[in-house]
Design a protein that fits this description.
Elements lengths: L2 H4 L7 E4 L5 E4 L1 H7 L3 H4 L13 H12 L4 E7 L6 E12 L5 E8 L10 H9 L3 E6 L4 E7 L1 H4 L6 E3 H7 L5 H9 L8 E6 L5 E13 L5 E9 L1 H32 L4 H16 L5 E6 L2 E6 L5 H8 L11 H18 L2
Parallel strand pairs: 4-10
Antiparallel strand pairs: 1-2, 1-5, 3-4, 4-5, 6-7, 6-11, 7-8, 9-10, 10-11, 12-13
Helix pairs in contact: 9-10
Amino acid sequence: MDASDELLRRAEPSALLSPDGIVHSLNAAMATALGRLAEECVGRHIWELLPESQRPVVKRIVAHASKQKLAMRVLELPRPGRASLVSLIETRPVTRAWGERLVWVHALNVHNDLGSLLIPFRLSAKSTGLGLCMYHPQVQQLVWLGGAPTVAALFPEASVSLPWVVRHVHPDDQGSLRRLLSSDAPQGSWTSLRFHTDHGDWYHLACRNRRIQLGYNGPEQVFGMIRDDTQHEARQKEMLAALGAERRRADEIAEFSSALITTATEQELQQVVLTRLAATFGGTGAALALVDNGRPFVSSDGGLPTWNVDALQQGRVVRARKESTRCFTVFLSLVWYAHTERGL
């Protein structure tokens, strides 16, 4: 048996690749880590067996080894229906007895330094504005691991108890928090929680849990990702309020238009314009001028300045002052309407 074949007899996930990254052979541990049968892996590029996000990294470390250089990198290997495996992967060149060059890919045992496996997660959380924590169900503790400083500021210490967290979550959201932490799913969905600090300020947080195995023979841990959606929620409320106001305004305009169309007498026209116009268009007042034999007859709801009404009564069109621009402009269109409807 060639010495290179002995590499596959190790307990850790191992595979032998051609210099261009095609899987030559692998052990059962590597097939399990990849979440595939061994025969599904042989003959394919190793990066084709990994998620899109991991492929560039794997290509680089295989390329280093193919040039007689050693390389290592922390990789996350997703396994369907199970916790993802996070492991430190090493690639190094090997030469078979008859001179064939291969690349040996294997997982390193880092049980004495599991924290090193978390570095990529910390960096990713910080770059995306997320907070990262680990939950220890045996002692009911949440340990802060890093990430967004704004999220870190919500917690008084690096380690807090679950009862403390529950007390600071809105009573209506505490059930969602417990379900999130007790879920056996490899990855949960984003869950909204309302959280208040010791100072009484309320925050809208989005939380998501992930189960990750640290190292090929390491423990399975529950991680939480936290996103501060407070400003987003505030903007959403402002947008919904603006949308509601716009819809109400559209309804009021439709009601005003309908009432205007159904008027049959001069008095009905006056009633509709003087009671609805200013409120519908956000003006301070309204006036209606009906022209008969070249003379305007002005009626007002009392909200316009007297100089404005006097100018209309005298048949003069004047530039409206700043505070009455909206109502005066709307009035002019109604003068045209009243004038044409009466056929004068």
